[in-house]
Write a sequence for this structure.
């Protein structure tokens, strides 16, 4: 398939494949980063935020307990200002806990989380009912009863509240750790896959580069080797290829060139052998060639014609002279040695004509009895 593509298409395809590999690695990396980002947000929303609300509830609960004792101490000291202050603080922390519970309720995930939230709400309602009873006893100046409520009766609701708070905190801490561990797993997995993907992409790009380079350089080196051999006169070169790109066309053209030169050399050899054998009318077929090669063959044929023409004329004249048929002088234009041959033949014709004329004169004189006549 690749052998049928042009070099431009091969290079473009190589760059496109490398770009696609890079894009795939990039898209995968972005996807993993988004997963990590989602995990981080999830850890904040489902781990950190509920844990903060739970911590606020726990802190408010402990401060209420501290202020309940401060209320009793202020009541015993008949310090109504301080007692009122601590009661206001209890009310403030109560509202803070109610707000935190409401916010925590918006972060619930799963049945277990809902069950824990119900338990803390129930224990908080019971505990604060005891708190309200205790504060009312203080307000009614029933200090001994209030003391018993604080130190004895409230212990059960405090224990339940503290237990549910501990469960809430532990479960949220565990959930945050699970989310963190999951994020770490996603991050490690994404990092490993990204490393593997990058290595695979680099190896694929290198492999593709080597493949395309070999595909291009092999026929080019083949063409260079063939060109060197042809320049040295060796026409037995390997120019076979199944490539359909520009390199394949180059090798095909060089093979055609080598075949043409082989034919040219062969025809030249045939003409030379024919000339040596005296077959001076042998000519090369010019229809097998084109361009300058055809001009070269036409030139060789023309050279033979230029040589053979005067020789044929000379042979004809010598033949006629040998038979007593004295031809007229040669009037065709020749150059160089052929012109000298023409001049010598013409001189010969003149000499033979004079000889014939003198012979005729002697014969005529002898017939007339003029025996003293000489040529």
């Amino acid at each position: 398939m690749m052998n049928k593509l042009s070099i431009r298409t091969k290079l473009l395809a190589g760059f496109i494949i490398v770009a696609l590999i890079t894009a795939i690695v990039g898209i995968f990396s972005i996807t993993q980063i988004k997963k990590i980002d989602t995990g981080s947000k999830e850890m904040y929303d489902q781990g950190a935020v509920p844990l903060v609300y739970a911590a606020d509830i726990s802190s408010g609960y402990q401060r209420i307990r501290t202020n309940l004792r401060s209320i009793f101490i202020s009541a015993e000291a008949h310090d109504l200002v301080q007692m009122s202050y601590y009661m206001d603080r209890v009310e403030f922390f109560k509202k803070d806990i109610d707000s935190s519970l409401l916010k925590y309720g918006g972060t619930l995930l799963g049945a277990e989380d809902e069950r824990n939230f119900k338990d803390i709400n129930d224990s908080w309602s019971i505990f604060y009912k005891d708190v309200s009873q205790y504060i009312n006893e203080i307000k009614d100046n029933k200090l001994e009863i209030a003391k018993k409520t604080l130190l004895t009766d409230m212990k059960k609701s405090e224990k339940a509240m503290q237990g549910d708070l501990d469960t809430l905190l532990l479960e949220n801490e565990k959930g945050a750790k699970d989310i963190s561990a999951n994020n770490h797993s996603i991050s490690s997995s994404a990092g490993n896959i990204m490393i593997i993907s990058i290595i695979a992409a680099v190896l694929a790009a290198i492999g593709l580069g080597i493949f395309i380079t070999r595909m291009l350089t092999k026929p080019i080196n083949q063409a260079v080797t063939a060109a060197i051999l042809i320049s040295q006169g060796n026409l037995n070169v390997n120019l076979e290829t199944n490539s359909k790109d520009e390199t394949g066309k180059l090798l095909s053209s060089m093979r055609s060139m080598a075949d043409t030169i082989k034919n040219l050399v062969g025809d030249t050899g045939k003409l030379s052998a024919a000339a040596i054998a005296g077959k001076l009318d042998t000519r090369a077929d010019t229809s097998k060639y084109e361009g300058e090669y055809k001009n070269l063959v036409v030139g060789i044929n023309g050279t033979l014609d230029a040589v053979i023409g005067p020789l044929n004329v000379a042979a004809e004249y010598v033949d006629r002279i040998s038979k007593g048929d004295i031809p007229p002088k040669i009037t065709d234009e020749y150059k160089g040695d052929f012109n000298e041959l023409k001049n010598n033949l013409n001189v010969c014709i003149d000499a033979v004509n004079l000889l014939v004329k003198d012979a005729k004169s002697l014969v005529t004189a002898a017939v007339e009895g003029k025996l003293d006549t000489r040529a």
User: Anything to note?
Assistant: The first helix runs from residue 7 to 76. The chain is about 80% helix and 0% strand. The helical segments are 7-76, 80-105, 110-139, 143-153, 155-231, 246-276, 291-322, 337-367.
